[in-house]
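Design request, C-alpha cells follow.
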C-alpha cells in the first residue's frame, strides 16, 4: 500500500484525497435504499405512518344495512355510496374505544366523513357509524369484510326452552314493545298509528289495583301518550286475549340477526311466577307469530286514540 493517509470503509481503503467523494457516494446509496425501503414498507416518507390498527383494516368493507362500502389503502379511506364517492386521509384515535377519524377535515371540529360520523372499531372487529341527520333517526352503518356478510345476514334462531302452557290467569305485569317503522305488521293502513316506537303496559300496584299505559313516539315527535287506571275486568280480558293469540305456545321465542331493524318484545308475568318471554330483532323482527294489532286495538279501548283522531 502506498504511503499517505488512508480511510477504511466497508467498500475498502480510500486515499484521503478522494475518500470524501467516495464515502459520500457510499452513504448516499445507503440513504437512497433506506428511503425506498420505507416507501415499500408503508412507513411515512410520502403517505404518512400507517399504524398497526390501520394496517389491520386494509382492504374492502361492506355495510350490512345498506350499499355503502369502505376501502382502506394506507392511511386513505374511500367511502362509496350510491350517490357519492370520496377519499379521506384518516387516523386512529381513542384509548379504550378506538375510532377512525378524518385526519384532514375542512373544519377543525369535524371528525366524520360527510354525512357519516367517525367510525367506531368494535372489540369484535366490526366497524360502526351513524348517519348524521337532524330531527330523525339516521342510517346505522355496520361494516364487515365482504366474506363475512352472509353470516351477518343469516337469521339466528336462539329460542329458549320455556314452558308452553301457562296455568295462571292472574297477570302481575304485561309489556309489549314494537315499532311499525320498518313494517306495519297487521295494523290497518286506514288507522292513524303513525310510524314510531310503541309500548303497551299493564302493571299491578302494591295495593292490588292496575295501571295501564300506551305510548307512541317517533324520533322527534310524540304520537300519543296515555296513562290511567284499569279495572280487574279489563285485565281479565287481556289474559283472555293472550290465550286467543296463543302466546304461551311461542314462549321462549328469540330470533335475530345483525341488520338494523327495530325489534319487538313481549314480557308477561303472572301471580304464580309463570312468565311468557318473546323477542325478535334485526330482520327477524319483520315477522311476528301473533297479531300486534289485536293488542294495540285492546289497549285503545282505554286510550281512545283512534276515535280522538277521527
Amino acid at each position: 500500500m502506498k504511503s499517505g493517509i488512508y480511510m477504511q470503509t466497508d467498500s475498502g481503503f480510500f486515499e484521503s484525497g478522494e475518500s470524501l467523494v467516495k464515502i459520500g457516494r457510499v452513504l448516499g446509496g445507503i440513504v437512497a435504499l433506506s428511503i425506498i425501503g420505507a416507501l415499500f414498507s408503508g412507513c411515512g416518507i410520502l403517505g404518512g405512518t400507517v399504524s398497526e390498527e390501520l394496517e389491520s383494516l386494509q382492504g374492502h368493507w361492506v355495510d350490512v344495512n345498506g350499499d355503502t362500502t369502505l376501502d382502506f389503502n394506507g392511511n386513505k379511506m374511500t367511502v362509496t355510496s350510491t350517490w357519492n364517492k370520496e377519499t379521506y386521509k384518516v387516523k386512529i384515535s381513542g384509548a379504550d374505544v378506538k375510532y377512525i377519524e378524518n385526519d384532514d377535515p375542512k373544519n377543525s371540529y369535524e371528525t366524520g366523513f360527510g354525512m357519516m360520523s367517525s367510525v367506531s372499531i368494535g372489540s369484535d372487529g366490526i366497524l360502526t357509524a351513524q348517519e348524521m341527520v337532524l330531527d330523525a333517526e339516521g342510517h346505522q352503518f355496520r361494516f364487515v369484510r365482504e366474506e363475512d356478510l352472509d353470516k351477518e345476514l343469516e337469521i339466528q334462531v336462539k329460542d329458549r326452552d320455556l314452558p308452553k302452557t301457562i296455568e295462571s290467569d292472574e297477570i302481575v305485569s304485561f309489556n309489549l314493545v314494537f315499532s311499525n317503522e320498518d313494517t306495519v305488521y297487521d295494523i290497518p293502513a286506514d288507522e292513524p298509528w303513525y310510524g314510531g316506537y310503541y309500548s303497551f303496559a299493564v302493571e299491578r300496584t302494591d295495593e292490588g289495583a292496575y295501571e295501564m299505559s300506551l305510548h307512541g313516539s317517533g324520533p322527534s315527535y310524540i304520537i300519543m301518550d296515555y296513562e290511567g287506571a284499569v279495572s280487574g275486568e279489563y285485565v281479565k280480558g287481556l289474559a283472555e286475549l293472550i290465550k286467543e293469540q296463543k302466546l304461551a305456545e311461542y314462549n321462549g321465542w328469540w330470533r335475530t340477526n345483525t341488520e338494523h331493524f327495530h325489534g319487538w318484545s313481549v314480557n308477561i308475568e303472572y301471580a304464580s311466577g309463570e312468565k311468557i318471554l318473546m323477542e325478535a330483532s334485526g330482520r327477524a323482527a319483520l315477522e311476528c307469530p301473533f297479531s300486534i294489532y289485536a293488542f294495540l286495538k285492546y289497549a285503545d279501548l282505554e286510550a281512545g286514540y283512534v276515535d280522538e283522531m277521527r
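Comment from the thread starter after seeing the answer: thanks! Residues 1-24, 29-47 have pLDDT under 50 and may be disordered.
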